[in-house]
């Protein structure tokens, strides 16, 4: 979410959840992979030992909405960071991606929702508002930011409705002031079921080794099935040599989750530096369908972050300062008094046996095997993941799991195992 004020800030807000969709005749290729990876590395550098989840696509759409009203250096910084060369083609790209990802599909759901909350009494540029609706299907609402509590409640209600109540209380009255002029909200909701679902009766408690040497108990899912799999090497010992890449499809085959797993004794922090945009493409192009044994922990990752500092480090600076030129948003020169105060994103991702919510039953799986007939992906230690559209290359989610869903000895789920 992005909030805009006069001589004060604009706030842009992105919201994310898990799901699935897509179908379009001429589907464009998303060109923002480099931006996605650079953003991940900035979050990783400040993330400590925390899990990470964010939506590169959501951030790109939010920046695209700001870009429509930006001029001069403010515009060029956004275009450079996102890797766009020409103004109109990039908006057509974002528009076509939005259309492709949002089309109805009976097998999965991807919901992209954008809205603008405008300060009543301010003369916004009709052309800017028209283009927001054309390219981003944005819904427009007029509010009085002076009534900050009521506005926060209205926006939070909108967010809840767009994310199936997974994201609540995103904003508070303190996020607005009498100088707030515009709040942009972008939400992505994704829900999908695995093409090959895990059987709940095969889920059991398992030890998960964290990179700091500690262990936690988690619920480990198991199945043997046909997946896209490959083993890769960075050509040196920087990433610990050989690492595994597993791609698991959601129903419909358009969406997938890719798991990148270093060797057991190699911390994820050794693998993360080699992650680059060309490598994402290399993984996607070189994994092969084969029989694989998969051990994957159930996990739930939720994160709220203010992206302002991170985006500034990526070169998008002027829109957050008094030097911002967002003059295309209004019909008078007052647009040059607008700047972005906050850029907030909240993401929620849950992975279970079904892909959505799944029950846990009793059962056992072998912890050790004397003979492995197929490649074995044992995600009992930290891993990197992306959820992407396989046709467009759009990355809906990217992140890492350093600590999965922890099961305490007195938990009901622990006892049932």
Describe this structure in words.
The two termini are 41 Å apart. By secondary structure, the protein is α+β, with helices and mostly antiparallel strands. Strands 3, 7, 8, 9, 10, 11, 15, 16 and 17 form a nine-stranded mixed sheet that branches. Strands 1, 2, 4, 5, 6, 12, 13 and 14 form an eight-stranded mixed sheet that branches. About 8% of the residues have low confidence. The chain has ten helices and 17 strands. The protein is elongated, with a radius of gyration of 22 Å. The chain has two domains: 243 residues, 2-Layer Sandwich (Antithrombin, Chain I, domain 2), CATH 3.30.497; 157 residues, Alpha-1-antitrypsin, domain 1 (Roll). InterPro entries: Serpin_CS, Serpin_dom, Serpin_fam, Serpin_sf, Serpin_sf_1, Serpin_sf_2. It is found in: Secreted. It comes from Hippocampus comes. One of its GO terms (biological process) is thigmotaxis.
How would you summarize what this structure contains?
This protein has 417 residues and is of the alpha+beta class. It has ten helices and 17 strands.
Q: Key features?
A:
eight-stranded mixed sheet, nine-stranded mixed sheet, 10 helices, alpha+beta, 17 strands, 25% helix, 417 residues, 2 domains, Antithrombin, Chain I, domain 2, Alpha-1-antitrypsin, domain 1
Chain-wise SSE layout:
Blueprint: E1 2-6, E2 8-16, H1 33-46, E3 52-54, H2 56-68, H3 72-82, H4 87-102, E4 108-119, H5 126-136, E5 139-143, H6 148-162, E6 180-192, E7 204-209, E8 215-233, E9 242-249, E10 255-261, H7 268-271, H8 277-286, E11 288-297, E12 299-306, H9 308-313, E13 338-340, E14 342-351, E15 376-378, E16 383-389, E17 395-401, H10 412-416
Parallel strand pairs: 2-14, 4-5, 11-15
Antiparallel strand pairs: 1-2, 1-6, 1-13, 3-17, 4-6, 7-8, 8-9, 8-11, 9-10, 10-16, 12-14, 16-17
């Amino acid at each position: 979410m992005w909030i805009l004020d006069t001589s004060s800030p604009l706030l842009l807000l992105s919201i994310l959840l898990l799901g699935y969709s897509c179908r379009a005749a001429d589907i464009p290729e998303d060109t923002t992979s480099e931006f996605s990876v650079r953003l991940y590395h900035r979050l990783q550098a400040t993330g400590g030992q925390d899990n990470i989840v964010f939506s590169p696509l959501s951030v790109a759409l939010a920046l695209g909405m700001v870009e429509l009203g930006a001029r001069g250096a403010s515009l060029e910084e956004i275009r450079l960071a996102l890797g766009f060369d020409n103004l109109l083609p990039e908006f057509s790209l974002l528009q076509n991606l939005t259309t492709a990802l949002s089309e109805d599909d009976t097998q999965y759901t991807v919901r992209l929702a954008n809205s603008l909350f405008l300060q009543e009494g301010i003369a916004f540029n009709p052309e800017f508002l028209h283009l927001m609706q054309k390219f981003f299907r944005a819904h427009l609402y007029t509010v009085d930011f002076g009534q900050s509590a009521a506005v926060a409640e209205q926006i939070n209600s909108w967010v809840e409705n767009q994310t199936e109540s997974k994201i609540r209380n995103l904003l508070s009255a303190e996020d607005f002031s009498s100088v707030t002029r515009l709040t942009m909200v972008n939400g992505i909701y994704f829900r999908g079921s695995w093409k090959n679902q895990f059987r709940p009766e095969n889920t059991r408690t398992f030890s998960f080794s964290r990179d700091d040497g500690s262990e936690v108990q988690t619920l480990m899912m198991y199945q043997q099935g046909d997946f896209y799999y490959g083993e890769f090497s960075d050509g040196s010992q920087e990433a610990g040599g050989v690492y595994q890449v597993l791609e698991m499809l959601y129903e419909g085959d358009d969406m997938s989750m890719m798991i990148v797993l270093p060797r057991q004794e190699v911390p994820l922090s050794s693998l993360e530096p080699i992650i680059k945009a060309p490598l994402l493409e290399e993984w996607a192009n070189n994994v092969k369908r084969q029989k694989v044994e998969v051990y994957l922990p159930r996990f739930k990752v939720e994160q709220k972050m203010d992206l302002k500092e991170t985006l500034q480090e990526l070169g998008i600076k002027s829109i957050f300062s008094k030097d911002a030129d967002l003059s295309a948003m209004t019909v008078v020169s007052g647009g040059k008094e607008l700047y972005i105060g906050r850029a907030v994103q909240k993401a929620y991702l849950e992975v279970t046996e079904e892909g959505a919510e799944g029950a846990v039953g009793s059962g056992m799986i072998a912890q050790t095997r004397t003979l492995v007939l197929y490649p074995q992906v044992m995600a009992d230690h930290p891993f990197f993941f992306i959820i992407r559209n396989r046709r467009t290359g759009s990355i809906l989610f990217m992140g890492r799991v350093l600590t999965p869903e922890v099961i305490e000895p007195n938990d009901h789920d622990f006892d049932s195992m």
